[in-house]
Design brief:
The complex is a heterodimer.
Chain A: H1 14-25, H2 34-60, H3 68-82, H4 89-101, H5 162-172, H6 174-190, H7 196-212, H8 215-240
Helix pairs in contact in A: 1-2, 2-3, 5-6, 6-7, 6-8, 7-8
Chain B: H1 5-12, E1 15-20, H2 21-33, H3 37-46, E2 47-52, H4 59-65, H5 116-121, H6 144-158, E3 171-176, E4 183-188, E5 194-199, E6 204-208, H7 220-223, H8 233-236, E7 246-249, E8 256-261, E9 267-272, E10 276-281, E11 286-292, E12 298-303, E13 309-314, E14 318-323, E15 331-334, E16 340-345, E17 351-356, E18 360-365, E19 371-376, E20 382-387, E21 393-398, E22 403-407, E23 412-417, E24 424-429, E25 435-440, E26 444-449, H9 450-454, H10 461-466, H11 475-478, E27 479-484, E28 492-495, E29 501-506
Parallel strand pairs in B: 1-2, 3-29
Antiparallel strand pairs in B: 4-5, 5-6, 6-7, 8-9, 9-10, 10-11, 12-13, 13-14, 14-15, 16-17, 17-18, 18-19, 20-21, 21-22, 22-23, 24-25, 25-26, 26-27, 28-29
The chains are: A mainly alpha, B alpha+beta.
Chain lengths: 250, 510
């Protein structure tokens, strides 16, 4: 790992010696020994990519062999793709002139954290919880009053058919009830046409839970509520933010 | 060859040479006498001869100013008026007596007299003619937390050590061990409580310098449970379970070459080889925004001294000015012929200085994107820039090992500090501008006497017209101390509010 030591052993592969000579010719005198390996790898990858592309082009042109023209075409196409260089100076001056003409926007007071519109931020949840229900889902909120207990709000739990089955388990195993709670929460989000209903069901589920399940589960369900609510609410919000776009595109 | 941009730039633009009228007459006569039309044609086509009236320059002066890839700066390039004064500090009710804050706007002189005497008399709002109007560019208003910060700042200022040739600062060095030459950027907050490191493995790591650990904000569910009316609500929102000395921020897909804390310590910016600049929240330690615009490595980024704006410069030869709430840049500063290596805001946030691999330093106006100053003189790509606290001077360091001092108002080089033997990669003025500290790849930190370097400047109209000043050879007198490290290049320098020097670098054993 010491820079400057580039003495290759005499029995190094011919390619490595050639690469060392190339580096010397380009005026590079100090480099780590790993640089030779890296350059050889790059050269190999580049050549194989070009030749693969050339093979594809020649077969496209229904030629029996790979031609010099194919290789030339392959080089040209790859150069436009991988080896891009920064835009030319006059282009930069031009767009700079355009961009610099608009006055600096005024700053709104009392804005909290000043961030771009949500679609340009990385603050949205990047996950969605997988539903555990395997049966066909019919998400019609039903009043299965007699299902569980005397609580009048239980009908909302019965939004998913499995609930009627799972209900007797509720008292026995809190853990399984927790998992059932997950499934209750998720269907509302998937049934997006029924938006107002899930909001209410979600909220009401929060009300039910504290007394029936332990504190750990409260946290889980309220998290679900908040994430689902944001997922639901972010959709209408996202549409609103279309108007916030700036007009000029860089 | 056809597509090479540097070649095109050289062929289309003219190399600028500055020459006195007498010398020019001599040259013209000589070339015409010799009937050598070839050379005369080349001169006419590719050289732009900027003639000035006055004494011809000595070899030493010429050597000091040449070096840029496009020749020297034309005189009219440095003629625009630059508002280099500082903005007035807002009035804040302070429990203690008012300190230096209100005296700052009066001082345009290089000598930092004790402003206390003037501050009492300067209650009248006398506008510094060199300071920009307060509303020249929109700046965010001060929040309560900012006002508290300012009060803390003022309290710390009273305890600040007055530095000078006989009172040198102590240097506290933070060495990054086991970085395997992967440390590529460092920044320290203004109150010296946090230090961030950008690494070649694309992570950004934030450490707490003080014993106070780093905590992230609680989850939304927990936040709804706390009492919002309590006095220590800012403590209660922090989750104790996440307290740690170090936080690692993942998100970039390439080495992180620039890092900058926001003045209110809520955000951290990092710029990377993947072409994006990322804004991280220091309350949740997650990434908030990725600003895409440069499609090439971004070598440096910095927050404005007032927050909200930030500037970034990269391989695409432009620097961009952004605001945190706009996903596209607000200004594009185009003009350099090669990569922009270093970008810094002026203390009044109205100007941005950029140092480039084309060996020039340009000063740009934030309001309209114009280049108002071009400084040539370095003989290598520029890697470090810093403004003096009074806003009048700029110090630059490059791979040639020299630190050059520039007067922004007049657009002249006013000092040259020789001593380093390798790239000067970090520069910082002390809090009151008395000492300039420079850190270099030759593993040393050098301290220079800034007051002496800037006094006795002959900046009358005559020298401004000619565009150069006689530079005294006084590097040895100005050097106050050289401090060696054990094979650790000094990547970053920072003066705490009490004028203690913090330096940072990664130990690289040879």
């Amino acid at each position: 790992m010491e820079p400057g030591k580039m003495a290759l052993p005499k029995n190094a592969p011919r390619d490595a010696l050639v690469m060392a000579q190339i580096l010397k010719d380009m005026g590079i005198t100090e480099y780590e020994p790993r640089v030779i390996n890296q350059m050889l790898e790059f050269a190999f990858r580049y050549v194989t990519t070009i030749l693969d592309d050339a093979k594809i082009y020649s077969s496209h042109a229904k030629k029996p062999n790979v031609d010099a023209d194919d290789v030339r075409l392959a080089i040209q196409c790859r150069a436009d793709q991988s080896f891009t260089s920064p835009p030319p100076r006059d282009f930069l001056l031009d767009i700079a002139r355009q961009k610099n003409q608009t006055p600096l926007p005024l700053i709104k007071p009392y804005a909290g954290p000043r961030l771009p519109p949500d679609r340009y931020c990385l603050t949205a949840p990047n996950y969605r919880l997988k539903s555990l229900i395997k049966k066909v889902r019919i998400f019609i909120p039903r009043l299965s009053v007699g299902a569980v207990s005397s609580r009048p709000t239980t009908p909302t739990i019965g939004t998913a058919t499995p609930q009627t089955v799972s209900v007797p388990n509720k008292v026995a195993t809190p853990v399984s009830v927790t998992s059932q709670r997950f499934t209750v929460q998720i269907p509302p989000s998937q049934s997006t046409p029924v938006k107002p209903v899930p909001a209410t069901t979600a909220v009401q589920n929060v009300l039910i839970n504290p007394s029936m399940i332990g504190p750990k589960n409260i946290l889980i369900t309220t998290n679900m509520v908040s994430s689902q609510n944001t997922a639901n609410e972010s959709n209408p919000l996202k549409r609103k933010h279309e108007d916030d776009d700036d007009n000029d595109i860089m | 060859m056809k597509g090479n941009e540097t070649m095109l730039d050289f062929r289309t633009s003219k190399f600028v040479l500055r020459i006195s009228r007498d010398s020019y007459q001599l040259l013209k006569r000589h070339l015409q006498e010799k009937q050598n039309n070839q050379i005369w044609n080349i001169v006419q086509e590719h050289l732009y001869i900027d003639i000035f009236d006055g004494m011809p320059r000595s070899k030493q002066q010429i050597d000091a100013m040449v070096g840029s890839l496009a020749g020297e700066a034309k005189r009219e390039a440095n003629k625009a008026k630059v508002f280099f004064g500082l903005l007035k500090e807002p009035e804040i009710e302070v429990p203690l007596d008012d300190e230096d804050e209100e005296g700052e706007n009066e001082e345009g002189k290089p000598k930092k007299k004790k402003p206390k005497k003037d501050s009492l008399g300067s209650k009248s709002k006398k506008q510094d003619p060199n300071a920009p109007p307060q509303n020249r560019i929109p700046l965010p208003e001060l929040k309560d937390s900012d006002k508290l910060d300012k009060i803390m700042n003022m309290k710390e200022t009273t305890k600040r050590v007055r530095l000078g040739p006989d009172c040198l600062p102590s240097i506290c060095f933070y060495t990054f061990l086991n970085a395997y030459q992967g440390l590529t950027a460092v920044d320290v907050t203004d109150d010296s409580s946090l230090i961030a490191g950008g690494f070649a493995d694309s992570t950004v790591r934030v450490w707490s310098v003080t014993p106070k650990k780093l905590r992230s904000v609680k989850q939304a569910s927990d936040l709804s449970l706390i009492d919002k009316e309590s006095d220590d609500v800012l403590e209660r929102i922090m989750d104790e379970k996440t307290a740690s000395e170090l936080k690692i921020l993942y998100g970039h897909s390439g080495p992180v070459y620039g890092a900058s804390f926001s003045p209110d310590r809520n955000y951290l910016l990092s710029s990377s080889e993947d072409g994006t600049v990322r804004l991280w929240s220091l309350q949740t330690f997650t990434c908030l925004v990725g600003y895409k615009g440069h499609n090439y490595p971004v070598w440096d980024t910095q927050f404005s001294p007032y927050g909200y704006y930030f500037v970034s410069g990269g391989h695409d030869r432009v620097a961009r000015l952004w605001a945190t709430d706009h996903y596209q840049p607000l200004r594009i500063f185009a003009g350099h012929l090669a990569d922009v290596n270093c970008t810094r805001f002026h203390p009044n946030s109205n100007y941005v200085a950029t140092g480039s691999a084309d060996r020039t330093v340009r000063l740009w106006d934030v309001l309209n994107g114009n280049c108002v100053r071009i400084f040539t003189g370095h003989k290598g790509p520029i890697h470090s820039l810093t403004f003096s606290p009074n806003g009048r001077f700029l110090a630059t360091g490059a791979t040639d090992g020299r630190v050059l001092l520039w007067d922004i108002g007049h657009g002249l080089m006013v000092g040259e500090l020789k001593g380093h033997t390798d790239t000067v990669c970090s520069l910082r003025f002390s809090r009151d501008g008395e000492i300039l500290a420079s850190g270099s790849m030759d593993n040393t930190v050098r301290l220079w006497d800034a007051i002496k370097a800037f006094e006795d400047l002959e900046t009358d109209d005559f020298t401004t017209a000619t565009g150069h000043v006689n530079l005294p050879e006084n590097s040895q007198e100005l050097l106050l101390g050289t401090y060696m490290t054990k094979s650790t290049p000094v990547v970053h320098l920072h003066f705490t509010r009490r004028n203690l020097v913090l330096a940072a670098g990664a130990y690289s054993p040879q």
